[in-house]
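step 3/5: co-fold with nicotinamide-adenine-dinucleotide
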Amino acid sequence: MKTVLVTGGCGFIGSHFIRCLLREESWRVVNLDKLTYAGDLDRLSDLAGEPRYRLVQGDIADAKLVEEVVVTERPWAIVNFAAESHVDRSILDPTPFLRTNVQGVHVLLDVARRYGVERFLQISTDEVYGDTDGLEPRSEEDPLRPGSPYAASKAAADLLCLAYRRTYGLPVLIARSSNNYGPYQHPEKLIPLVIRNLLVGEEVPVYGDGGQRRDWLFVEDNCRALLLLLEQGAVGAIYNIATGVRVRNLQLVQSICTVLARELDTDPAGFFDRIRFTPDRPGHDREYAVRTDRIAHTLGWRPEVELEEGLRRTVRWYLSNRDWLVKRADEEYRAYYEAVYRRKWELV
Ligand code: NAD
Ligand code: DAU
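step 4/5: write tokens
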């Protein structure tokens, strides 16, 4: 049995990935998570009593702690999901993004190097290529032109990973995924935000003209790709992961209205009426588009869940888990929401 140190495993994607790993008897998981506002133990509550799972609460930027965990657990691999992940929060205050997404990654890389970890999978993002509006979809070797403080911090981490590969021979792999969605995503992100606002009777904010395009990837498809990379990916390689289908934000929001209305057996017109165009995200990238030939041709990965089906599953999950949405829309969330939506991007 091989041990994997998963960081940020109490987050949205990390928790799905841990469940995906533990479905195979050959893996044991140690989850190092700081439990920031974005971390939630509920996401893995079904693992209570699972002997192949251990949670350590702590910070990836805490070098002493990370070393202790690696010395004790001797993981075969580290898969790093831990990050400040929300672009809008990085606009309000980039500081924690630099600490976790850059310094934290450096701590992990350094400990991995010193203790001979055999795989280091860095979970990156398609946002590192920057806005692709008017450009061809990006390939893995294209230059990085991050637009937001979040994307810049993730690009810095990618470059550090590649430097550790070249300088010290660390067996690094980088995954650059597009927008994930699915159960248990925090309501700060677009899809759960729209579902929540429709359910509680609030307006639905669409930034700018709503013409920005994103490639929506069902979280389980992403986790299947990440597991393939861990098991069979080429060391030193970068892999884009996306569906290749890009949808305008306004169209996506309208689709959510339609799916939710159908599930509730109500007229979608009432939901459409709640859509409001709001002041744009500063520096908002119009589009992210990536090529996925590498993962398709070398590892045979393809997405399985189409957007309509993924939205249906997601909406159904939130309808059956309204308590979780209420819990996540806590005081901290409301203060954040006020700053972005009511005080229009008030900076700290
Ligand atoms: P998330 O915000 O839901 O979860 C992040 C997790 O990391 C939380 O559990 C949090 O407690 C933990 N964390 C934060 N700082 C930490 C620290 N210093 N030490 C230890 N743990 C810490 O994030 P997500 O949406 O699941 O994204 C996971 C990763 O995937 C991130 O690296 C993100 O950049 C990347 N990514 C996300 C998406 C997406 O659409 N959500 C797409 C592409 C890439
Ligand atoms: O592309 C991958 C990235 O996708 C990940 O690296 C990030 O961690 C993840 O948060 C996500 O970033 P986005 O900024 O694309 O996701 P978000 O859900 O915040 O926004 C999706 C789009 O919707 C974006 O164009 C902004 C827009 N939007 C978002 C919110 C929250 C709105 O129009 N209104 C909103 O209220």
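step 5/5: annotate
The pocket of nicotinamide-adenine-dinucleotide (ligand 1) is lined by residues 7-8, 10-14, 32-36, 38-39, 59-61, 81-83, 85, 100, 104, 123, 125, 154, 177, 179-180, 186 (CB under 6 Å).
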